[in-house]
Every structure is written in C-alpha cells, then in structure tokens.
Design a protein that fits this description.
Blueprint (H helix, E strand, L loop, with lengths): L2 H29 L13 H10 L6 H13 L14 H36 L4 H15 L2 H15 L15 H27 L2 H8 L4 H13 L1 H15 L3 H7 L4 H10 L3 H29 L7
Length: 307
C-alpha cells in the first residue's frame, strides 16, 4: 500500500477517534451534577444564572454540543470558565511549551540512558553490569515518581543547593524535573531492550552474520540492535504524547507551570472547556504520534507492511 493512501486512511480514522473522544468528554462533563459556577462562594444565585446565560450553559444540550463541534472545526476551544479573559487556546499556548521543554529533555534522557543500559545488560548477561542495570530498572519502575521528586528536591535543592525549585526559569529549572520524569521510561526501555537483544542475539541470521566474518560491533549495532529497537519505537508513540503534555505530580512538586498542572486544576474547578480542550489536544497528539510510529516501523523493518 502506498504511504499516501495509508496516511489518508489513518488521518480519517484519527478524525473519527477524535470525534468520539470529543463526544464522550462533552457528555461526561455535562453529566456531572452542578456546573462550573455552582461551587463558587459568596456569589448570589442570580449572578450564577447570568454567568450560565453568558456562556450558553442554559441552552439545550444539543445546541451546546453542536456549537462546540463547530468551534472545534475552527480550532477554537472556547473561553475558560475560571480564568477570566483567557481562552483555552491561550492557556494551552502558554503552558504547553513549558511541558514540551521538560518532556523533550525527559524523552532524550530516557533514550540516552535506557538503550545503552539495555544493550550492555544483554551483552553482559549474568555479570555485574547486568545485575546493576536490572537493579536500576527495578527501582525506576517500582519507586513512585512523587517519591523520587521529593528525594531529589531534598538532596539537590535543599541539602546541596545545586538547583532552585518552586518557579520556572527556562532550561535551567527544567533539568531536575526532566531527570525525575525520565527515570521510569528509561528503566522500562532498558528492560525492553535487554529482553529483545537477548532474543535477537539467538536468531539464525546473527550466527550467519558472524559466519560471514562480520565484526562483533557490526553484528551488534547494525543487525541486532536495529531489530531490538522495534518494540522501543512502538512504545515511543504513547510515551512521547504522554511525556510532552506534562506530568501533574512532577510539575506540582517542582512548581512547573505546565499543561498537566492546568489540567488537574481545571478538573477541581469544573472548568468544562479547559478539561475538554486539553483532552482533545492530548488525543490529537496521541493519534498523531501513533501514526508516525507505525510509518517509522515500516521503514525500519521490511517485514512490517503498511495496511
């Protein structure tokens, strides 16, 4: 199948997926008892009614739904109910670059650490390198991120004074949150690469490559590692979407004003448009990266066809 046809079909399926997500999220928000202003303190009921009328919350549900779909088609996610004078587009535009910086660094760190550890562990199976790598992988997977974040704040910020936390000042304040966010995927990737490398190194074509006189480095890094990275690339699709849109726990501990913080705050504030806007934004990133992952896999492994 030609790649253009595949991309077209995946784009159509992605649009259908986004439509389903939008519909489910919209009606779930409306099914919650009360409204975005019902928990506001010291506000008379007639003021709340005026606010509901201003934002169209008194209109029939099908009218609200149709209006929201039309706004989505115009890439308008609507106004925020709790941040006066701000739209959801503006809030995402302000907070997503912060999460993108932290998430991008975390993704890079996880790959730089996870892949070499997995390769070394597979090549040194049963030796101290393998055991050390597996200890790191186990700790990285099992220790909760908020525990790691709290420990890092105490060690590097409070005790050693190497970094400052609690505010955002660009790359300099993104390193420690990125390292904390990267430990779990790095540990998972190292275990994934190790298991795949052990399986690949036992294949017939690896023995054939050695029999042809190829050097150990060529066999490992050109033939074995290429196939061992296929599950890692599959994992990178949802990982990239999740890690770039922010982690509330990490952002809360380090005081990072990212998208994850705004999303959780909007849930507590019943900011319907913010909740739906971030959900649609995350879903669009997720389906896009999954499609990119599938396309990349077809080029890396000729056995995988675009269907």
């Amino acid at each position: 199948m030609k790649i253009k046809t595949y991309i077209l079909k995946r784009t159509v399926s992605s649009i259908i997926t986004l439509f389903i997500v939008i519909t489910i999220t919209f009606f779930m928000m409306r099914a919650i008892p009360g409204g975005p202003f019902t928990d506001a303190k010291a506000i008379p009921n007639f003021v709340i009614e005026k606010m509901n009328e201003r934002y169209g919350l008194n209109d029939p549900l099908y009218i609200q739904y149709g209006r929201y779909l039309l706004n989505i088609l115009c890439f308008d996610l609507g106004p925020s109910y709790r941040y006066e004078g701000m739209t959801v587009n503006e809030l995402i535009a302000d907070s997503f670059p912060v999460s993108f910086i932290v998430g991008g660094l975390a993704l890079l760190i996880s790959l730089v650490i996870g892949i070499p550890l997995g390769v070394i562990s597979a090549l040194r199976r049963g030796k101290w390198q393998d055991k050390t790598s597996m200890i790191f992988a186990t700790l990285g997977v099992t220790v909760p991120s908020f525990v790691l974040a709290s420990a890092f704040v105490y060690i590097f910020a409070w005790h050693l004074g190497w970094v400052t936390v609690g505010f955002w000042d660009g790359i300099s304040t993104a390193i420690l949150p990125a390292v904390t966010l990267a430990l779990y995927p790095a540990a998972f990737i190292s275990r994934l690469v190790r298991s795949e490398m052990l399986e690949v190194l036992g294949q017939d074509y690896i023995r054939t490559a050695y029999a042809k006189g190829l050097g150990r480095s060529s066999v490992i890094y050109i033939h074995a590692l290429k196939n061992a990275l296929i599950p890692v690339i599959t994992y990178l699709g949802p990982l990239t979407a999740g890690i770039l849109t922010g982690s509330f726990v990490i952002e809360k501990v380090y005081g990072v004003p990212g998208l994850g913080t705004f999303f959780v705050t909007s849930i507590n504030n019943r900011d319907y448009t913010m909740i739906m806007g971030v959900t649609v934004f995350y879903s669009a990133i997720l389906v896009s990266f999954n499609m990119i992952t599938d396309i990349c896999l077809s080029f890396i492994d000729p056995r995988i066809k675009l269907r």
